[in-house]
Amino acid sequence: MSATPATAATLAPQVARATATWREADVIAALTAALGRSPDDAALWQLLAAAQRSAQDHAAALAAARRAATLAPDDALIAHTLARITLEAGDPAVALFDRALALAPLDAGVMLGRAAALVAAGQGDAAATFLAGVLRQHPGWYDGHATLARLRWQAGDRQDYAAGYAAALATRPRDGVLWRDHAATVARAGQTDAARRIVTQARAAVGASRTLDLIEAGSWSEDGEIAAADRLYRAHLPITDAEALPGYVRHLLRARRADAARAALEGRLTREAHDLWPLAALAWRLTGDPRSDWLERGGAFVRVFDLSAQLGPVDELAATLRMLHRTIAAPLDQSLRGGTQTDGPLFARQDAAIVRLRDAVRAAVADYVADLPPADPAHPLRAPRRDALRFAGSWSVRLTDRGHHVDHVHPAGWISSACYVALPDAQPDDTPQAGWLSLGDAPTLLGDTLAPWQTIAPQPGRLVLFPSYMWHRTHAFAAGERLTVAFDIARPPV
Length: 494
Fold this sequence. Notes:
494 residues; alpha+beta; 50% helix; 3-stranded antiparallel beta sheet; 11% strand; 6-stranded antiparallel beta sheet
């Protein structure tokens, strides 16, 4: 008896499983075979687009999404799929999101996508206006508030970037989540005094809470007011949950209590503890724990590659990247100071210069992973499977006069990077390592207590790869433009 032909309904669960495990090849083959039998089945084309997008075959995904939309122009899911993949590919997408929104007027993903498409089209003000209008009608849309605050911040607004929260709270004064998000957003922006005022207002509206205490404690710690932070943290000890522990350990490190930080981390460093491994790196190093070398020095964990021969004319790549910098200020909660960062997955774009860069990067990452020491199930770099490589994010940063990155890590990644495209000319006011990458030290958190493991000079076409949990920063340069591309390699699923 012959097998029952596969349909969209039977293949949809397989697509979900395949995309969750990064094993899309078989389901893509099954979808292709099903389309050979039913070439006008729009649902099959949509599933194929989803699987190919997950596999990061962006050109094929876009072609499949376009075919699905041609066959079923009034299908809301297909319209959103096409709009999203088109935006990621770097093509104009506002009209496609308008169409998707007409078919699904209250779909939050479509509305956020439309805002992103407007930003990509150079219409950041229109994106903010659109989101503000939606939030007036739906003041409890938390993701919308967060996105609007980020957009306004990147447009240079330092006064009213979070005004949407205040307007919503006027109509929802007992919404504890809205109060929390308002205070946390302002705290992440570094406006600690304002964050504490919001916490005070929140307590008056919804009562005292552990969450509000921890936001206030973190703000005092950031300001160096260790005793004030201690009083709040002490009321909630022991702190062991995944949400609060990273902030508490940062406080302990800032307070120069490395032994206490190490103790707080014991038994918590699981495979999923992505926010904790960078803190363990500092605590172990400060206390002379031998696990420090195992974590950060147990192999060729920092490598430098020269991609200049594969990139083609670097001026073409630089010109392409400059056109993508649509905002005038750095993102609200990122590490760069004195520059801008592109939005969306850079390596999904189909620009020829970016495709060349992406292909060169993939080859370098494959080389890096192949040369890692043998697997170690307890190690955050060495444990993951190595049979598939995916980008968790990719972007460009453009820094200008005195621009730099403060010390930071990338909890969403497995392997992180810096790739240099254009550099400023040397200036008389430059320090000896102006613009250099520093790996392993964290002066914002710890002062000058740790020297970097390594410093690396920038050079056009140079790619540096390192573990995502490794602290890194750049030294400021006096004047000019520093244009880079960065990306995270995703941590593979088990």
